[in-house]
Amino acid sequence: MMGATGLSGCSQLRRRAPSARRGFQSFNNVPTPDQLAGRFTSAIIDPVTGQPFANNTIPQARFSRLANLALSTKFFPAPR
């Protein structure tokens, strides 16, 4: 017979929620200082114009707020 919740024995269905992971434990690829400055060795296509950025460099004025926040707080560790 079904209980008020629609399921009998619903206590058996409860499982412990996995604990939340916060932050990163390791980085597999750390960007180089040139990459953090927007300078790349291969052509980077501007999503607005469809043309490559001049000198394979993304202007800092085009960095997103999140990218600027990551750079200002030194989110990425320095390369070794």
Task: Chart the SSEs and their pairings.
Elements: H1 33-36, H2 65-72
Can you give a write-up of this model?
The protein is mainly α and 80 residues long. It has a domain at 31-80. The chain has two helices and no strands. The protein has helices at 33-36, 65-72.
- Order of H and E elements: HH
Q: Can you tell me the residue ranges where pLDDT is under 50 for at least 5 consecutive residues?
A: none
Evaluate the radius of gyration.
23 Å
Total strands: the figure is 0
- Share of helical residues: 10-25%
What is the first-to-last residue Cα distance?
A: 64 Å
- Please describe the biggest sheet, giving its number of strands, its sense, and whether it closes into a barrel: none
